[in-house]
Amino acid sequence: MIRAYRLYTLSDGNSHVARGSVSVGSVVEAESILFKETPAHSSLDWHDAPTTQYVITLAGVLEFTTVSGETFTIHPGEILVAEDNTGSGHKWRLVNDEPWKRAYVVLKEGADTHFIPDPA
Q: What local confidence, expressed as pLDDT, does residue 62 receive?
């Protein structure tokens, strides 16, 4: 299993986080992939995910926060399953001295993300 964090919007209009994993060996239908790099010490204020996507961190350590105060930290090799396309959104900031290198994998509409939540 690969460590993953799912950001999603509930009926309260706020983004929430679920910790879990993405199953290994499952084929996920994707539309495109985009590689991006952001300088060290960067941040991005409140925003929604533009579409359902995997954000795979290749380098850098980030702290994510939701409006309701939920936080989590993503390390290289971990996946953000971004599904909070509406509502209050989330923000992030780099917490180490490296740039954030990542791959955005845009999933086909309706594709199964293969996210498996941690047991409660």
A: 98
**Amino acid sitting at position 107:** L
Q: What is the DSSP string of 74-116?
A: E-TT-EEEE---SSS-EEEEE-SSS-EEEEEEEEPTT----EE
Please state, in angstroms and rounded to a whole number, the distance separating the CA atoms of residues 95 and 34: 23
Q: Mean pLDDT for each 10-residue chunk of the chain (120 residues)?
A: 96 97 93 98 97 98 96 98 96 98 97 94
The helix/strand/coil state of 69 is: coil
CA 18, CA 8: separation in Å to the nearest integer? Answer: 8
DSSP 43-57: EEEEE--SSSEEEEE
- Position 1 scores a pLDDT of 84
Closest to 84 in 3D by CA, of 114, 63, 57, 64: 64
Handedness of CA 95, 98, 100, 102 (dihedral sign): negative
